[in-house]
Amino acid sequence: MTQATPGVLAEVRRERERQDAKWGEQNLDPAVWLMILGEEVGEANNAALEHLMGNARDLSHYRTELLQVAAVAVSAVESLDRQQARLAGSADQ
Asked: Rounded CA gap, 62 and 40, in Å?
């Protein structure tokens, strides 16, 4: 980790909060999460390509997309953990 890590993680947290405000709690199948994550990675790829081709002055859009990739990955882990907890709770009964 670097000195920048806490600030970056705070940005990921804000993006997660934005996603939750927009979509609510998402409890999706792992395959669906991977499709969503792939779509976000594709957007990051596109932003990097636009910069490389000279169509984007800076990498700010690329950075935004990377934060969204990270936030979606966190959301997928949260969803998996909720699903696993429910399964464990069902097994205990």
From this structure: 11
To which residue do tokens 């920048």 refer?
4
Residue 85 CA to residue 57 CA, distance in Å, equals 46
pLDDT digits (tens, 9 = 90+) for 50-65: 999 999 999 999 999 9
Instruction: Supply 93's token pair.
Output: 């009964």
**Residue 90: what pLDDT?**
77
Q: How far is CA 9 from CA 5, 60, 68, 84, 92, in A?
A: 6, 17, 12, 25, 35
Which stretches of the chain drop beneath a pLDDT of 50?
none
Distances (CA, A) of 52 to 25, 42, 56: 36, 15, 8
Q: What is the pTM of this model?
A: 0.91
Q: How far is CA 84 from CA 27, 44, 56, 79, 81, in A?
A: 11, 30, 42, 9, 5
